[in-house]
Amino acid sequence: MGNLIKVLTRDIDHNAAHFFLDFESKHHHHMYLNMGNLLKVLTCTDLEQGPNFFLDFENAQPTESEKEIYNQVNVVLKDAEGILEDLQSYRGAGHEIREAIQHPADEKLQEKAWGAVVPLVGKLKKFYEFSQRLEAALRGLLGALTSTPYSPTQHLEREQALAKQFAEILHFTLRFDELKMTNPAIQNDFSYYRRTLSRMRINNVPAEGENEVNNELANRMSLFYAEATPMLKTLSDATTKFVSENKNLPIENTTDCLSTMASVCRVMLETPEYRSRFTNEETVSFCLRVMVGVIILYDHVHPVGAFAKTSKIDMKGCIKVLKDQPPNSVEGLLNALRYTTKHLNDETTSKQIKSMLQ
Fold it and tell me: Which residues belong to any copy of the CYRIA/CYRIB Rac1 binding domain (predicted)?
């Protein structure tokens, strides 16, 4: 049964230490198998008792019923690392652009700047197109993880491979946006490209890079890159659209799926005996990003959001977990909660939560 991890989805503090998601280890089968009957899956729909089930986020393999969606999403996810590497190495054409602007009569410098910008815009187009593919993948996953007749808890238990992919999409999204936020060259390059292109059109100069990005695509890319966190905006719009398009599906099916995942990540991070099992420091940042990602999605999709008293996410607990990390490692995630959530500044948000995020 591989690494089966017991998850109590009910957010009850005295029970909180009962769940652990193994994002890493692949070699501890014997340890779990010795537990014999403890591995029996217990599901009870009575939430008050707290359903117990096991989630294997590390080695979850798709079951027959998951395969179709899993394979579609996998095709997208396998390109994610390459997109991040391209974005990380994106240096921009700031120097060439400055030179060209300072010496407008120097044709050589104009050509040099244009030559530097065109391939970069090709990259920006690739990133944008990937966001569209990711959006389609997310909608496929949401459809699978929220469909009737199963509860969100049962879905996460039955479709562990899809839950893992959902976590990977969120992890990618927050990493992409962290890199984009700290790279002002992206918007500078793109606006220079658009200005130069419109000048060329006015002067009837044929531009080889023009067929790369037509006007309509350029407008959509401009809106995308104008966002502080463009990938997160894409996902939250897609989730909101998914809910509004599926009128027959209770919105709780979607939001409970998100709040359950937030609880799982929080408890893993705040429980020392689980934390000490992580062999890879990367797993901590994976959990932190997934937790923040589902909180932000929940806040955009749920009518009253993640910060209200009625929210199913323990926001104080989640913020405390973030604050307990080394400060420089989580500033980006705290900023994501400060600036990309929807309801933080509502009157219904407690002063305590607001001051924790000051």
Answer: 52-354
- Integer-rounded Cα radius of gyration of the chain: 23
Q: Which residues pair with 320 in a beta bridge?
A: none
Give 3-state DSSP helix, strand, coil % of the chain, rounded to 5.
65, 0, 30
CB contact at 8 A, 156 and 53: yes
pLDDT, greater one: 332 or 104 = 104
Q: Using alpha carbons, select from 284, 275, 85, 273 the residue that is nearest to residue 172.
A: 85
pLDDT in tens, 219-267: 999 999 999 889 999 998 999 899 888 888 888 888 888 888 888 788 7
Give the separation between CA 107 and CA 260, rounded to whole angstroms: 59
Residue % of the chain over a pLDDT of 70: 79
Residues 6+ apart with CB under 8 A from 161: 60, 61, 62, 63, 66, 70
Q: What is the pTM of this model?
A: 0.79
